[in-house]
Amino acid sequence: MELLLICALVGLAVIFKGSDRQLKYGKFTRKASVIKNGRAYYIEEAEFESYNDALHYYFKSVEDYVAEENPLDSSFDYYDWSFTILKFKMNIIEIRLFRSYKKIQFIRSEEQVDIENYLRDNPSLSVM
């Protein structure tokens, strides 16, 4: 009986374990760890029902990260493929919107890197 109770508790703990997802919205599709030019990056992707949902949660995700900690620097482009890069004390994050795929992608450097060096690594950082 005690063994059954322990198994049930462990099972519930696994089911209700807190998520370590960085993108809080959308359907999780994949994640990856990548090393580019000696720097490690974590990449995560989420998909949405529609482009409008993806657009809304793209801006909501950026807003959430800015609310957590004021970025030291930022860069963004909303013309073609939307992206926002936020430099924090310990790392850089980027949130990208892929319009034709109804997806957003999160990229986080695992160490401090300036935006200029990050942009050099950037073209090959993807799980697409």
Report the helical percentage: 25-40%
Kindly report the spatial arrangement of strands forming the biggest sheet. Answer: 1-2-6-5-4-3
Strand content: 25-35%
SSE order, one letter for each helix or strand: HEEHEEEEH
Mean pLDDT across every amino acid position: 83
The description of the largest β-sheet is:
6 strands, antiparallel
Anisotropy-based shape: globular
Radius of gyration: 17 Å
Q: Which structural class do you get from the secondary structure elements?
A: alpha+beta
The stretches of 5 or more residues where confidence is low (pLDDT under 50) are: 12-18
Please tell me the total number of domains: 1
* Total DSSP E strands: 6
First and last CA, distance: 48 Å
Helices, by number, come to 3
Organism: Aureibacter tunicatorum
Protein name: Regulation of enolase protein 1 (Concanavalin A-like superfamily)
In short:
With 128 residues, this protein is of the alpha+beta class.
